[in-house]
Structure formats: C-alpha cells, structure tokens
Design brief:
By secondary structure, the chain is mostly helical. It has helices at about 10-35, 50-70, 75-85, 90-104. It starts with 7 loop residues before the first helix and ends with a helix.
Length: about 100
C-alpha cells in the first residue's frame, strides 16, 4: 500500500487546526471558568500558559491558512472562513476535515 506524497502546507494546516481547536477549548472551558467563576488563577499561576499558547498558535494558524488558501487558489471568502474557524469552538475541526477532504 503506497501513499501519495502529502503537501507540507496541508499537513501543517491539519496540525495547527487541531492544536488551535484544542487550545481554544481549553481556553473557553478551563481557563475562563477558573479565572472568572472560581477565581483560581492566583493559586494556579501555571494556567497562564493557555491564553499565551493560544495567541501564538492562532497567529501561526492564520499564516498557515493564508498559505494553504493561496496554494490551492481558494476564494477570499473561503480563506476568511478558515481564519474565522480558529475563533469558534469546534469550527477548526470542521474546517480541517473539509479542507483535507477537498484538497487531499
């Protein structure tokens, strides 16, 4: 069973979509309640890595979405949709599946 060569930009997009999606879920469902409901950030300083990591990952996700959009000649609206998918919980997982299905 041989596999066709994969596009490095597509592989990078898949990885970053999953990482950004998981980190966004951690941010919304772990960090935000811990900070604003339980006021637990003062006791658990290590939780600060979640929003910082999400910020850096999202920037790289945007650049990767732009790269894959230009490489695959996607419309401007589609590229904006990919970028917006990184801001909504679970949307990056859906966008990743659709892009991989269409461009693999």
């Amino acid at each position: 069973m041989t596999q066709s060569p994969t596009n490095p930009a597509l592989t990078r997009f898949r990885l970053l979509a999953v990482l950004c999606g998981v980190n966004l879920l951690l941010l919304i469902f772990a960090y935000m309640p811990a900070k604003y409901i339980f006021d637990a950030i003062d006791d658990n300083k290590w939780l600060i890595f979640i929003p910082i990591a999400h910020g850096y990952l999202y920037i790289v996700y945007i650049l990767t979405a732009l790269q894959i959009g230009v490489q695959k000649r996607m419309s401007f609206v589609t590229i904006l949709g990919l970028i917006a998918a990184g801001t909504l919980p679970f949307a990056s997982f859906i966008a990743e599946r659709k892009v991989v299905k269409k461009y693999s």
